[in-house]
Every structure is written in structure tokens, then in C-alpha cells.
Amino acid sequence: MKKKRPNDRPVRDWFGMGIALVQLITAIVNAVFNYQLANAREVAAQV
Q1: Among the four 4, 5, 33, 44, which has the fewest Cβ within 10 Å?
Q2: Distance CA 40, CA 44 (A)
Q3: What is the mean pLDDT of residues 9-25?
Q4: Sign of the CA dihedral running 37, 40, 46, 47
């Protein structure tokens, strides 16, 4: 078992993909939260 492998690039790619995925999920959660907040404000304004 060697520590330095010539093919450690896929690991880095997976790491970058994971970061991109987390950012995407965060963006979606933010969008949903903002949307619900806007709806709540409209409902409060109607009442």
C-alpha cells in the first residue's frame, strides 16, 4: 500500500463535486426559505 498514488486526481474531483453539491443544496434551501418568507409576509399583510 503506497501512500502516494498517481491517480489521486479523482479524489480531488469528488471533493470538488461534493463542495459544489453542498453549495447547490444551500442555494436551493435559501431560495425555498426566501420564498416561504415572502409568502408569509403576503399572508400577514392580507390579515
Answers
A1: 4
A2: 6
A3: 93
A4: negative
**DSSP symbol at 3:** S
Q: Pull the grid cell for residue 47.
A: 390579515
Residues listed for the chain: 47
Calculate ∠ Cα 24-27-29, nearest 5°.
110
Look at the pTM and tell me if it is higher than 0.70.
no
Alpha-carbon distance 5 to 8, whole Å? 6
The C-alpha atoms of residue 11 and residue 18 are separated, in whole angstroms, by: 10
End-to-end CA distance of the chain: 68
CA 7 to chain CA centroid, nearest Å: 27
